[in-house]
Fold this protein.
Amino acid sequence: MRNTARLLIACPDQRGIVAAVAGFVAEHGGNLLDADQHTDKEHGEFFMRAAIEREGFGLDRNTFAAAWEPMARRFHMQWSIFWGQPLKRMAVLVSRQSHCLIDLLWRWKSNELDVELPLILGNHPDCADVARDARVPFEYCPVRPGDKARQEQQVLGLLADAKADFLVLARYMQILTPDFVRTMPNRIINIHHSFLPAFAGGSPYKAAYERGVKMIGATSHYVTDDLDAGPIIAQDTVPTSHRDTIDDMVRKGRDLERLVLARAVHLHVADKILVSNNKTVVFD
Amino acid sequence: MRNTARLLIACPDQRGIVAAVAGFVAEHGGNLLDADQHTDKEHGEFFMRAAIEREGFGLDRNTFAAAWEPMARRFHMQWSIFWGQPLKRMAVLVSRQSHCLIDLLWRWKSNELDVELPLILGNHPDCADVARDARVPFEYCPVRPGDKARQEQQVLGLLADAKADFLVLARYMQILTPDFVRTMPNRIINIHHSFLPAFAGGSPYKAAYERGVKMIGATSHYVTDDLDAGPIIAQDTVPTSHRDTIDDMVRKGRDLERLVLARAVHLHVADKILVSNNKTVVFD
Amino acid sequence: MRNTARLLIACPDQRGIVAAVAGFVAEHGGNLLDADQHTDKEHGEFFMRAAIEREGFGLDRNTFAAAWEPMARRFHMQWSIFWGQPLKRMAVLVSRQSHCLIDLLWRWKSNELDVELPLILGNHPDCADVARDARVPFEYCPVRPGDKARQEQQVLGLLADAKADFLVLARYMQILTPDFVRTMPNRIINIHHSFLPAFAGGSPYKAAYERGVKMIGATSHYVTDDLDAGPIIAQDTVPTSHRDTIDDMVRKGRDLERLVLARAVHLHVADKILVSNNKTVVFD
Amino acid sequence: MRNTARLLIACPDQRGIVAAVAGFVAEHGGNLLDADQHTDKEHGEFFMRAAIEREGFGLDRNTFAAAWEPMARRFHMQWSIFWGQPLKRMAVLVSRQSHCLIDLLWRWKSNELDVELPLILGNHPDCADVARDARVPFEYCPVRPGDKARQEQQVLGLLADAKADFLVLARYMQILTPDFVRTMPNRIINIHHSFLPAFAGGSPYKAAYERGVKMIGATSHYVTDDLDAGPIIAQDTVPTSHRDTIDDMVRKGRDLERLVLARAVHLHVADKILVSNNKTVVFD
């Protein structure tokens, strides 16, 4: 994956885009490894992810934009390219619970997650030990009553210092302000401990238990201003029964949360997600 | 299954209920094939399903109630017993779509569903052919504007004539009135084309599409006054992606609906469901 | 789907194929709706499915091959194109059990399966009624002991008369001879009532029951000379428990078989399957 | 769970067992919280798990056996009882891979697994760090060529010193000898990285990849003399596609392995598993 550039494109749908992109890549000696597309007929939008072998490709991070610009203008493209290296820098924001954090750390140590992990932040100190065992710097950023703005400034400063490219909320129990969210559009990944839009809000397992549902779920999504309503990246469900107490549901839910969050982070790291109209196109 | 009596019990939790019930059965020469229990600690309630081999059991439909009554009084039980035979009589109420009906008919013909099926009713005539091919009487009961009460009286009359024990709404698109629901408590089974409580209401696939969910679901539940909020019997989900159009979601949903409804009917027919506090205890 | 031509390509992997194909389509005024690719690095093979809007495309079934030939030669392509219309003609071969047949018929009648269905054949007469109710011709082709060759000739003759494009074995319990299979390579779809390669052979549910498995599965595959070892198209599993009798497993298995076979037929009809090295590439 | 005694019974099926057991418990002042049964009609065997509240129960670990003996003799029972406390003592045996071990450790630290964890053993030193971070003793027990017997003696000695009640093979890549297995019947839990019996043997993911399967699985089972053929406790599957490389399959498989092994350990710890005829009865 480190030897592959990923080009993401969104533009109004019209004929010839794939041919034009594929032709451009070929013209510069590149090998097109994958070229996923999707057309949203409802909105007349076209989405594409092109994976280009870097070896042999005549363009690099310094020269690509200039060469590509005419194409982008011709098709009114929004686009971005990621060169595989240097690796994306991931920061993780936690509260008290560690299960999602531990899971991410294990995947990172096992080379499943091809990222740098320069920083873990917590509004509680509970996960400091987990971070220390993993030899990742931990910063304690408590939220003092009535002063969330100050804490968010602290977090943003630390993220900037760590040069974090994206932020994973690994069961972070605070609501981020619109000001914070605005600084990292489609680069904050949350895990919601519920099958959204069912049981949006604070105590979904309790709500699910009281409703007597036969399955519970988890949802990973990008964070937007509208709480719990951001573009969904991944979801999954697991059966429950009347024998499950709320604690059992929480336990089953934790297993799901870990897997669903990891899947979302994986997709983000591989530049497989495009966002439009508050929905994701996921080229998996 | 036809040679097994099923006794369902709900009562305040206390010591010795299982022993008392099992002792009663043994005392009358019965063989206890299964004795599932569940204690709802939150509400202090006890639930039990006892399956008793009829062969050798000294009690029958005429003598059971009198013999059992002291036990029922001692533990303040709500109880019911079903003797395996004669079979339960199932009626099916449909609108235009036939997929759930066809599925139920096929299972019935394959001896998967151990019921009599004396009657299919429709507020549209569309499913008449399906019923005729299956050699089951079909009654057309249209809803005239402003006169739903009259149609429900017609349906109730036909159900009474057919001696129907329970009613399956196989994608019936009308809302039943509380008066109707009251006549068959916990004996009307609905399939909701959604993963309740997400997307409750009329066009869940459209809502799910617009929300960009990565899974859709279906929910089967008993019908209560509160639309879409009755006790859930069975649920399931299936993955979707950005490539799925609304039509694709509808198609995937239909497959789910058929399976989930069939599962719920199966459980009901085998007397494996107890209802309490608007939740089900399902001994599967 | 009827307005879309589907071009399937397999060739040795090299640079520039996507660009060349996309360029070809654009040059002839075509709109490339989808262009899925897959590179099998292990074998150095490239696979592509291009969906081309027929409206505006300057080539048709009469002119395409000549225009395309230079491209095919240049990249050493194996290729095929399907024009969306006329519809593919599906024949179904059954034995005694009807559940898969009924399911296919229902999907066909519901316009889920965009095919012509000119013929159902059975080596037993049991499904004749189902065929008649669906108004599809049924041919009874019994296998007389020691004379399977003759029956297969009869079947092949009827398939030819019906101009069948592909054949679905909907729980057909006879083994086809290599001679038969050779006439329809990658155009005979089977449903195996097991999670291959586990419990290949004749009584998989019994074998699964005796092994005490906690899940059973179903596998749909193209038929090859090597019994049950053809390229897998679709698989799925469902949980079981010690409470399931063999009959329960059969019943759960039937539900799976229907769904998995329908999924495979769907993919075949939409020209989404390529076969290589006895494996499928499925662009779903 | 610590306040609940669990009584497991297996005996020839006959009338009145539930009544007798429930009566015994009631007679000694016990509250029967759960009384799951299963009758294996094929072999005429009866299985039961009774969960008894310890508070109020007139028997304890010193007095139970004498009081119970007449019942056991009358019904020819094999039985065991576990008193909830002291906790079961779990040892874990690993090789190089740590993902299952890390998962078990996390669940143990999160109080999901109600066990003591006195010892981790490895035939490679790779997991020593993980054990140290978790503050659990680690013993390195290498297998020298031609001298497995000596290593197994070492392991058995360490298990005895640690008073281990059961042993979890968390991706242990050595085959245990029958002599070893015999010392802990139905108390060694293995995770097999495949969907048994498909792809039993050494490189299941490679085999699955080459067969082109669309799902992979994992199986947890008790270890018996017959390699990979012991009683299955839990299984699960996950979808794959042609896009998955062997590495992807291994990665997906690891996630499954962790979950399936944890589920099996959970069931064992809660005394919810009975074994008979090389199959499990799992009261979950």
